[in-house]
From TrEMBL:
One of the record's GO molecular function terms: mRNA binding
Annotated family: Belongs to the eukaryotic ribosomal protein eL24 family.
Gene source species: Chlorella variabilis
Protein name: TRASH domain-containing protein
Region described as Disordered: 64-84, 115-157
Domain TRASH stretches: 8-46
Amino acid sequence: MVLKTQTCRFSGLRIYPGKGVLFIRTDGQQFLFLKQKCRSLFIQRKRPAKLAWTTLYRKQHRKDQEAQVARKKRRNVTKAATRSVAGTSLEVIQKKKAEKPEARKASREAALREIKERTKKAKADKAQQKLQAKASGKAVKNVPKGAGKAGSKSTGR
């Protein structure tokens, strides 16, 4: 047999059939209280959250915690995502990762050697151009920056 219970509007406790006090306000709203004590406190405009025996107080102050099932804390596992970086594709990065350290070192040294050779060649070309300019008679004088054309007036500042 199932009993239809109602809850008290003040205390939040269960009211069994045939028990309780019904209070009807002048605007027609009905309030059902467990006992006269609850009705009296409601009429005095007392706050149920401030009375330790009400369910509202117990809920706010975290009483009856053993009744609630504690949730398991989930750890956020950070997964390292491998992405392509600044112009190099993911395949190239993975290939370099898989390379043996000796091979990686050798390729690095080869790349450095190639860069050095390129700079040496560029320097040699520049020197060659200077020599050709001198030989042809177009000797360029070192003129300081900001100096105007010959014969132009300067303010002297």
